[in-house]
Structure prediction request, 68 residues.
Amino acid sequence: MLIVKEDKTRNVEQGQIFVELTENRGLNVSDCNRLGYWCDRSHIRHFILELSKVMPENELKDLLVKRL
Prediction:
């Protein structure tokens, strides 16, 4: 599961967006594999561009239209 949260109270230089990738996240969040870090919008843009390499264009458009 991919979790993305924003904290605008953090310094921009330290990153205001927290991205976490987890495996087997259930009720016991302390007992799962997790990788998380703080980043900025340019990292998120890069992620979306890389994602576009493996997802068909129509699926990406559908996701974005539903979100917007």
